[in-house]
Amino acid sequence: MCAGTSATSSRGFVSSFAAISTFGGPTLASAFIRRGLVDEYRLLVHPVILGAGTPFFPQLETPIRLRLTETRRFESGVMYLSYAAA
Fold it and tell me: Is residue 77 assigned to a domain?
């Protein structure tokens, strides 16, 4: 997201695509989440506790309600969780 980009112009740009996948860290994800541009969250949860790091989700003024749409468990213990905006 470019500095000074409004949420309205961002939504117009995003809606011109059938689907957009973004792989990035917490800084990029936070920019999209805060602007309300994320309609699906796909998470891979690894069975390891690191005890440090940057939170992936930003602090928000109001919670974002999600609906679980899919789960998968891999032999390694990794869980795939897919959520849609409720």
Answer: yes
| Residue 75 covered by a domain | yes
**Residue 64 is assigned to a structural domain of this protein:** yes
Distance CA 29, CA 77 (A): 25
Task: Tell me, yes or no, whether 57 lies in a domain.
Answer: yes
39-85 tens-digit pLDDT: 899 999 999 988 888 777 888 889 999 999 999 999 999 999 999 98
pTM for this entry: 0.68
> Please, are residues 54 and 26 in contact by the beta-carbon 8 Å criterion?
yes
The beta-carbon contacts of 1-7 under 8 Å, at least 24 apart in sequence, are 1/28, 1/31, 1/32, 1/35, 7/35, 7/36, 7/37
What are φ and ψ of residue 68, in 5° steps? -65, 125
